[in-house]
Structure formats: structure tokens, C-alpha cells
């Protein structure tokens, strides 16, 4: 390929204006190397054999020129993309939907196995212009004559090496027989094993070979650090990390839309400039959120994979995988949100013991090491806060001489001291105490609830001081609970997870010490360990769930448990409480 192409921008390419507008809206500024070369080649009508590693933007490399070939007035399948897995099919379809958003009359049908035929058939019968699918289902639909390829203009094999790994080569050959001679073809793959080269020879017609060298060095500027979830909730870990980490902008990945809101809300309550970026927001709201991130009104975005795709904010210095992605490829996309434009970035992962094997996978994918680290404990965090305070005071002393009121303040202070009622130390102490009510300079040791528990002798397995099982509510756990009432219920939109999250966060309490939760219309019952310290109670009275103060108080009512079948055991074993377990897990 000639060198001059490396300076092409999207608008230099003969793409439909609706596509260019959309790329602009999505924050796609410069084409990636594979796009630089593939888009013009495909627009000129060539077949293309493209090789570039994961995360280099291959979808747009074939997707954008394919969109240019579509005639929206024709109600027939004009573009076919074959992908190895359902997840990839959905991903590619979403990307193409995104790119074509401003093109009238262009639709995307996604077809894959394991889902009902009905809706997929319906979409195809409407004559959707783009079809993205997995081999098996495509063959089924071809056999049923629902999928018709006569009008096909572009056929793409995406992630061809993965198809080979999954044993789809024969299926693909079957599908390709149905592709008209006249259709343009492209094959994209992260690697080029011989079997794929062979397939390319029969499938493609005088293709342009485009190969993008792996950019290992660029990737290595993203440092990857992993913390094993242990000893504190993920939420506590997150707030601590954000407190001690000098990030410029941070992007936090969670699993669901609801999580984006929950985690963002908890962060806001801890004083962070955080906001959710979720699929619940419309395009305009999303764009606004992203521009607030750029401008610094927001410093932390909490997002799911889907909405964060393509996010290009060079100021993002940290990507935090609060929940690990459901597929390893998304990991590469996620961490690619930092270290943009050659800057360095940090990718942080929270993982559970059973997810440890994934770290290897990530190392292989990124060709860079993942190191372990520890989240600061209470003592380290206290020291950090004290040091920060000292630095802040020193800085403010230096700036103070220039401060307009400093003479007046000095005079006032002099008067107070002269009156002899307060010493300088008293005044300083009172001010410091006042200032650090919300953010204590001396944190209690981690897991205050464990301490409470240790006040109870004989909590060990055979301890004879334990109450009979019946009195402990029939649970197998070794925690004695009281029942509390909170003034938040279904009407406020609260779910057990919200309550667990709020309590775990506000009281720095491991969620396994939160027992059963029963939701009523305008209140809820929550089991919490007996003998909660006063200050914890106090914090929880004022803490909010769904904007609603909890107003926690002891209750005579008992949490009623519907008998339920035993759940499958997780890493903690059978002793774990049952209610709200799924929800609690998210915060733990
Ligand atoms: P691949 O198929 O090569 O693994 P994708 O096409 O899935 O890569 O793209 C990886 C990510 O990069 C996606 O989130 C996509 O939105 C983003 N991306 C692709 N091209 C660009 C671009 N030119 N500018 C900004 N982001 C891009
Ligand atoms: Mg891809």
C-alpha cells in the first residue's frame, strides 16, 4: 500500500454523508491502519483479504464500504456478514446498526442458532439489507429459502481463523456456494493459518492483501493490574482505589445497565464526579455525557461494554474492570479505551478466584503481563488521607499570603487566642474534626462487622455458646441477626441489590454480613448482625437508597422466608445467605 494513504481521513473516503455524520457523532476521528487501507480498496470494488489483530477496527474496515454499496430502495439482502459466534454476530450487527443509523431504509438482521426462528425469519422476510449471522443458522435459513442471496452485493467472512478453530470451514463453503459471482467479497482474520489462505483462494477474486503488523509496543503502554476480590466489597475497593489513584478520567465497566446506575450512584455519594453511561440514555444524552467527560464535568464513567464501544476520550487514564467482560475480546476493546493516541494508561481488573484463568488469556491477547496488586487497607488509606491533608494545608499556607481575607483571619484568630478561651491547638483540632466528619482521617480497621462478631465468644464451629439453630432463624450461617426496618420499598424502585449495595458501602460492611431482605411496598426488612456499633447505625439511618433515606430502625417483625430449593453453591460454600444473593454478589 502506498504511504500517502496513511493520511486519509474518513471524509476523504467516498462514504455516504449519512455515514460520515454518524462516525463524527460516534467520535471516530481517524481511520485505524486497517481501515485506511481496506475502505478505499473495497470502495473501488476490489476483493480484500485483511489480516489485523483484535481490536484494530476490522468491523468498520469492511462495514463502512459495504454500507456505501447498499441501495436502500431495494428490499433485499445486499450485505452478508458471517461470524463464528453469536456474540460476535451481535457485536458486528450492533456496530453496523450504529454506522448506518442515519441511513434511511437500511436495516440489520442478526441470525444465530439457539434462538427462535420466528423473529429472525420475520426480519429476513421484510427484506433487511444487511444480514449478520453464524454459519449453522445461515445454512438453515438458506435451506428454508428464507434467506435469499440473489441480490447480494457484498459477502464478508469475519474472524475467519476463529471459524476454522470452531470447525466451521465446511459450513462456510456451503454458504459461499450461494453467493452470486458478481458479489464483492472480503475475508478478515486476526491470523492467517494455511487453511484460511486456502479458503481465501477459492472464495476471493484477485484480492488485495492487506496486512497490519501487530502493534505490541503500543499495547504495552497500557499497564494491566489485577486485584483478587478478597477482604472487602468490590465497591469499597473501587472507592479506595479511586481515592488513592491519580486518574485523570476513569472508565469503569460493569455487567448490566442497572449496575451502571447503582455503581455511579454509590460513587456520587462518596463524592466522586461519576455518571452512568447506559443504553437507557438516548443518543443525544449519551453524547452529552461523553462531552461532559471530555470537559471534566464528569471524571468517571460507569458503563457497559455495549455503550462504551468506540468511546475515544484521550484523557481516560484508567479503565477499571469492576466486572470482567463476558468474552475475552471485549477485554481488549475495554482496555483500548485508555492509552489512546499513544498516551499511557492503566487497566485495573477485579477478579474472583474462579476467574483467575482468564488473566492468562488476557495476557496472551494483549501480549503483555497482568500484575497483581492489593487495594489499600484501612490503615494505608488513613495514612494517605493524612498525607493529603498535610499537603493541602501546606499548599494553602503558601497561597494564603495572597488570600484577600488572610489579614482579617489572622486578626480574628489573634482575638480568640487573646481571650484565652481556646488555645491554638483547640481551634485547629475543632476545625480538623469538623472538616473530616465525612471523610475520617483514621479509618476503623477493615471489616468492622467481623470485629463485632469476634466479641461473641464461641463463634467457632463447635462453640457451645451458640444459640440453638431455631433461634438463629434456622440458617446455617454463623452470624446472629437482628431484623431492621428501613423506609424504602418497592414503590421507591428499590431492589435487594440496591439495599445491599447501600449498606455495604456506607457501613463498609462485607455483604455477606447482610442477611435476608424482604421488600414491601413502602418499606423493607433487612437482617443485620446483632450488636451493631452506634456509629454504624447512625450512618445507616441517614444513608440513602434510590434517593430515599433508609431511616434504619430495629423491628419486631421477622423476615419471612419462602422455602426455597437449595441454590447452587458458590465459592463461599453452602453457608451463604440466600435472599438477595445474586444482588449481593455484585457488590461483593
Ligand atoms: P476488531 O474487529 O479488529 O477486533 P472492532 O471492529 O471490533 O475491532 O473495533 C474495536 C473497537 O475500536 C470498537 O470499539 C470500535 O468501535 C473501535 N473503533 C474502530 N475503529 C475506530 C476508529 N477509527 N476510531 C475510534 N474507534 C474505533
Ligand atoms: Mg472483529
UniProtKB/TrEMBL annotation:
Q: Which domain of life is it from?
A: Bacteria
GO CC annotations on file: cytosol; ribosome
Q: Which reaction does it catalyse?
A: ATP + H2O = ADP + phosphate + H(+)
Residue ranges of every copy of the DEAD-box RNA helicase Q domain listed in the record: 8-36
Q: What is its EC number?
A: 3.6.4.13
* Domain annotation Helicase C-terminal: ranges: 237-381
UniProt name for this protein: DEAD-box ATP-dependent RNA helicase RhpA
What's the source species' lineage? Bacteria, Pseudomonadati, Pseudomonadota, Gammaproteobacteria, Alteromonadales
Amino acid at each position: 500500500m502506498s504511504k500517502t494513504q496513511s493520511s486519509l481521513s474518513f471524509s476523504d473516503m467516498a462514504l455516504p454523508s449519512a455515514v460520515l455524520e454518524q462516525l463524527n457523532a460516534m467520535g471516530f476521528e481517524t481511520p485505524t491502519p486497517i481501515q485506511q487501507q481496506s475502505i478505499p480498496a473495497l470502495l473501488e470494488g476490489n476483493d480484500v483479504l485483511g489480516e489485523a489483530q483484535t481490536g484494530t477496527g476490522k468491523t468498520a474496515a469492511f462495514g463502512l464500504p459495504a454500507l456505501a454499496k447498499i441501495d436502500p430502495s431495494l428490499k433485499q439482502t445486499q450485505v452478508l456478514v458471517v461470524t463464528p459466534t453469536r456474540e460476535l454476530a451481535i457485536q458486528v450487527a450492533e456496530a453496523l446498526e450504529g454506522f448506518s443509523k442515519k441511513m434511511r431504509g437500511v436495516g440489520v438482521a442478526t441470525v444465530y442458532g439457539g434462538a427462535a426462528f420466528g423473529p429472525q425469519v420475520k426480519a429476513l422476510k421484510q427484506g433487511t439489507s444487511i444480514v449478520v449471522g453464524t454459519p449453522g443458522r445461515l445454512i438453515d435459513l438458506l435451506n428454508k429459502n428464507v434467506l435469499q442471496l440473489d441480490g447480494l452485493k457484498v459477502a464478508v467472512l469475519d474472524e475467519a481463523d476463529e471459524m476454522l478453530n470452531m470447525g466451521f470451514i465446511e459450513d462456510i463453503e456451503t454458504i459461499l456456494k450461494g453467493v452470486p459471482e458478481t458479489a464483492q467479497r472480503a475475508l478478515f482474520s486476526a491470523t492467517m493459518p494455511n487453511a484460511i489462505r486456502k479458503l481465501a483462494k477459492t472464495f476471493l477474486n484477485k484480492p488485495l492483501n492487506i496486512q497490519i503488523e501487530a502493534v505490541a509496543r503500543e499495547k504495552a503502554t497500557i499497564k494491566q493490574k489485577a486485584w483478587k476480590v478478597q477482604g472487602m466489597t468490590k465497591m469499597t475497593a473501587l472507592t479506595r482505589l479511586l481515592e488513592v489513584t491519580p486518574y485523570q478520567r476513569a472508565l469503569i465497566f460493569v455487567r448490566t445497565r442497572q449496575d451502571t446506575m447503582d455503581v455511579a450512584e454509590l460513587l456520587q455519594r462518596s463524592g466522586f464526579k461519576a455518571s452512568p453511561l447506559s443504553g437507557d440514555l438516548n443518543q443525544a444524552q449519551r453524547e452529552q455525557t461523553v462531552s461532559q467527560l471530555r470537559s471534566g464535568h464528569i471524571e468517571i464513567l460507569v458503563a457497559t461494554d455495549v455503550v462504551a464501544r468506540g468511546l475515544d476520550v484521550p484523557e481516560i487514564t484508567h479503565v477499571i474492570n469492576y466486572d470482567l467482560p463476558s468474552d475475552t475480546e471485549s477485554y481488549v476493546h475495554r482496555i483500548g479505551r485508555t492509552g489512546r493516541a499513544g498516551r499511557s494508561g492503566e487497566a485495573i481488573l477485579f477478579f474472583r478466584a474462579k476467574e483467575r484463568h482468564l488473566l492468562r488469556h488476557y495476557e496472551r491477547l494483549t501480549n503483555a503481563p497482568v500484575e497483581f496488586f492489593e487495594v489499600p487497607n484501612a490503615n494505608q488509606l488513613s495514612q494517605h488521607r493524612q498525607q493529603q491533608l498535610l499537603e493541602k494545608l501546606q499548599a494553602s499556607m503558601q497561597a494564603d499570603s495572597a488570600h484577600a481575607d488572610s489579614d482579617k483571619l489572622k486578626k480574628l484568630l489573634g482575638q480568640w487566642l487573646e481571650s484565652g478561651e481556646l488555645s491554638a491547638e483547640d481551634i485547629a483540632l475543632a476545625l480538623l474534626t469538623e472538616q473530616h466528619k465525612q471523610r475520617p482521617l483514621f479509618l476503623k480497621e477493615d471489616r468492622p462487622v467481623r470485629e463485632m462478631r469476634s466479641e461473641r465468644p464461641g463463634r467457632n464451629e463447635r462453640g457451645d455458646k451458640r444459640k440453638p439453630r431455631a433461634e438463629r432463624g434456622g440458617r446455617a450461617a454463623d452470624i446472629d441477626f437482628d431484623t431492621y426496618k428501613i423506609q424504602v420499598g418497592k414503590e421507591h424502585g428499590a431492589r435487594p441489590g440496591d439495599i445491599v449495595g447501600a449498606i455495604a458501602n456506607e457501613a463498609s460492611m462485607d455483604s455477606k454480613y447482610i442477611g435476608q431482605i424482604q421488600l414491601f411496598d413502602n418499606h423493607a426488612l433487612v437482617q443485620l448482625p446483632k450488636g451493631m456499633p452506634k456509629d454504624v447505625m447512625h450512618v445507616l439511618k441517614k444513608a440513602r437508597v434510590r434517593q430515599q433515606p433508609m431511616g434504619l430502625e430495629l423491628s419486631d417483625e421477622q423476615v419471612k422466608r419462602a422455602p426455597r430449593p437449595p441454590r447452587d453453591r458458590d465459592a463461599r460454600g453452602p453457608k451463604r445467605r440466600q435472599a438477595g444473593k445474586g444482588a449481593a454478589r455484585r457488590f461483593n
